[in-house]
Specification:
The chain is α/β, with parallel strands linked by helices and about 325 residues long.
């Protein structure tokens, strides 16, 4: 085991995959120069080399700033036998390639009767909470959850970042991975040997008996901190990180809520039609009789992200807000 940052774990997964399979290639804006820190061979380019030196320009390739073109190129490369990893940098840039994502990448296997597979991974980073303004702060994973044919992952720990990415690269269908930039510097133990975490399997971050707290992506650390505070008051909170949003580990969530009888869902995306809404509906449909209190969702409101730091910080769920929600569903008086 080694201590790695979230971003370092992504780089390790990419390097392992490229060393293991010459069909794996990386394309994207500025990937040759390791601008975002996941295509470097080590701390020093001169001593250890970067991906460009390690694998050459046939396998690590810069692209023009044209997201629709990048996604289309990767889709075509995947159909002809390569296994591309695409670095699209900001998640907000995915909008420029919606036709390729929705009409080509997602529908290809169905439209052509399974004659071609689409083994391609699209990485993007959610720069919310960093005062990057409305055009760069999006958390658009719920939009893509609504598109059949796409798998969606949102790792929240360094170990998951590496293991889920390796599994995504192995997938013969397109996978979109959404990384919360606030997690990039998070460090944790990561296995040195190659390993995969299966898509569609949730992680129970901590076990509990009184309330189920489902936390997504960058919300997971705050959820754990809130659970710690409730534990001091004698409330046992079970924290579940779905890790994969499509396919969603519904059994893990339903089993937990059936046992605790209470549910709080927290995520950084907008409220309407978000992942929290989908999980809440699922629980209401399947284990309504087990509920002892109304479900509570904590999300960002349905409005654009302001550039002002003081205003933006009010947009997202906070530890205090999660604590208040947990106290509400368990019947504790407000602190």
């Amino acid at each position: 085991m080694s201590i790695m940052s979230y971003l370092g774990a992504i780089g390790a997964a990419q390097r392992e995959a490229m060393e293991a399979d010459e069909r794996v290639v990386i394309v994207g804006e500025d990937v040759e120069a390791n601008v975002y820190g996941t295509t470097g061979g080590g701390k020093s380019r001169s001593s250890e080399g970067d991906f460009l030196q390690l694998f050459g320009r046939n396998r690590i390739r810069n692209t023009p700033i044209s997201e629709e073109g990048i996604v289309g190129i990767a889709a075509g490369a995947a159909m002809t036998g390569l296994r591309p990893i695409v670095d699209l940098s900001y998640s907000s840039f995915l909008y420029m390639a919606m036709d390729q994502f929705v009409n080509q990448v997602a529908k290809n296997r169905y439209m052509f009767g399974g004659q071609a597979s689409m083994p391609v991974v699209f990485r993007s980073a959610m720069f919310y909470g960093l005062n990057t303004g409305a055009h760069h702060s999006d958390r658009p994973y719920p939009m893509f959850m609504n598109v059949p044919g796409l798998k969606i992952i949102a790792p929240a720990s360094p170990e998951d970042a590496k293991g889920l990415l390796r599994a995504a690269i192995d997938s013969d269908d397109p996978v979109l991975t959404f990384e919360a930039v606030k997690l990039w510097g998070l460090k944790g133990e990561v296995g040195d040997d190659p390993f995969r975490i299966p898509l569609g399997v949730a992680r129970t971050v901590r076990e509990g008996t009184d309330v189920t707290l489902v936390a997504i992506s960058g919300s997971v650390p705050d959820a754990c901190a809130a659970a710690d505070r409730l534990a001091e008051e004698g409330v046992s909170v079970e924290v579940i990180d779905p890790r994969t949003l499509v396919p969603l580990d519904t059994a893990a969530i339903l089993t937990s809520v059936a046992r605790t009888g209470r549910l709080v869902v927290v995520e950084p995306a907008h409220r309407t039609c978000g992942a929290a809404a989908e999980i809440s509906a699922l629980v209401a449909e399947e284990v309504f009789d087990a509920l002892k209190a109304p479900i509570v969702r904590l999300t960002a409101p349905d409005m654009q992200i302001p550039f002002s730091p003081s205003l933006e910080q009010q947009m997202y769920p906070t530890r205090d807000g999660i604590v208040a929600a947990l106290r509400r569903v368990t019947g504790l008086a407000p602190a």
